[in-house]
Design brief:
Structural class: alpha/beta
Shape: globular
CATH topology: Rossmann fold
CATH superfamily: Vaccinia Virus protein VP39
CATH class: Alpha Beta
Helix content: 25-40%
Largest sheet: 7 strands, mixed
Distance between the termini: 34 Å
Number of domains: 1
Strand content: 15-25%
Number of strands: 9
Radius of gyration: 17 Å
Length: 248
Amino acid sequence: MNHTAGALAFAACLAWLAGACDGGPAGAREGVSLTDARAKMVREQLAGPGRGITNARVLEVMGRVPRHEFVPASEQDEAYHDHPLPIGHGQTISQPYIVAFMTEALDPKPTDRVLEIGTGSGYQAAVLGELVAEVYSIEIVKPLAEQARETLQRLGYQNVRVKAGDGHQGWPEHAPFDAIIVTCAPEHVPQPLIDQLQDGGKMIVPVGGGFQQDLVLLVKQGKEVRQRAVLPVRFVPMTGQAGDPPTR
């Protein structure tokens, strides 16, 4: 996309955010306060100064997906604020900026098939579900997987599949994937996930233990995997069977 076209798309997205945020699978009518809160979230937390999310499709979808539907009732007043929220079982939903940042890093296409590791409450899967053709999401905490599946189905996300399982092994039956997003932090990138990434595909994953984590973007080109750290972060640790470190 050239600079002029990009500017026009971005302006159109912001203009859209100034109006109603209905539409898409989750486009049920809402109170004005929720719609306004979501639009403000996009303007200030994502597209605002110092944040730099510019992908018009990502901004539009972030302004449409009802984050309050993916948090406990006791946390809904905080749904569009700039911080993570607890979702039970020691897990959290990432702050909106991180969701948008990771999504934009993958540069999702409408024809993509995406694997997500760490479904949580299903919010990231919903965002992806409006941007790509198919989403396959794995959650190791079975009650969270079941709840996320129910929420996504209730909101109409028919292109998102959720299963309970160990994300270290990926979902080989549906590989290869055009993109993989990991929303929990392994000590190292699991080799099965690299193997299931399409040639030319991208993976975004927080890597590290304790308080030392970096969000790493990997790009697979043939037998070569290029990676670079893009943002210091703090995610819940990835649990399950880690297996051996990936081969270099």
